[in-house]
Amino acid sequence: LMGLRQLFSSRSKHDTFQTSSTDKRVAELGLGVSGTTELFRSRKNQLYVVKTYFGKEDYESKSEYKERVLHEYEVLRQLSHPNIIQVYSYRVSSSRISLHLEAGSPDLHVLLKQVPISNINPDEMLCLWKQLCTGIRYIHSLDFCHRDLKLQNLVLDLSTGCLKIIDWATATKITNNEPAVGLVGSKGFAAPEMFSSISYDGKMVDMWSLGIVLYYMLHKKLPWKTAQHSDPDFCRFQTQECGPSSMVQLPGDQATSQILVVDPAKRVSIDQLWTHQWFQGLKSCGESPCGMEHFRTFKV
Question: Is 24 annotated as a binding residue?
């Protein structure tokens, strides 16, 4: 996908975005259990992503299938934020449904693979992480939670280099402070309460994932495979969690020490993190330039 920025440089405003059956397929971005993700270029040289879901399951009615696969569209059309990927439209064929979405860079997991650990700039990673926190603060203010935050669901805007959160298929809206339900997301980034309880605080789950994402961005590895008692690294962390020799060190000391807290009732909220002096002092693109060129670090 080298050269995406050049392809994307002549895009027009999103509110005038239009697709056509004659648009050119540029690349396949992914093939999963539920469908395919492909990159297209419009006649006006605009790049966009088409996420096509496979046909309905045998147990589903047509209306149930449509409700399931359009969940991401329904969530995204209620959100508008610089750090959240934009949805344009959807298309229904005889047997499949496709979403048309804003294009971004390869995901952050792929981009970080290009960067040797010795070249990781903590200030640059914190810039991107604060942008992620900014997007999460926005959705939490609207009582949404993402529930699948991970490097693979973070991309860069192809024109500005700012971070964008993608893949909202497991996102949910919290009403009347009711808990979120169900084990979703990815093992390495999922909070421990997701494995131990059928219901949980969805916003606190996002906070835990923010901590894991930051750890990975700085160390290019996960602190453990899964936050369960069966994982020896997590068990070791759990016994040291409140001690001075905790195995998981994040920058920010007091500000971040309450993110990876096993008890969600004691975990810091996004608003509490936001008011901390250390967090306020982080430079972040979007608020003002951080002084670093992200596309120099990540070859897009």
Answer: no
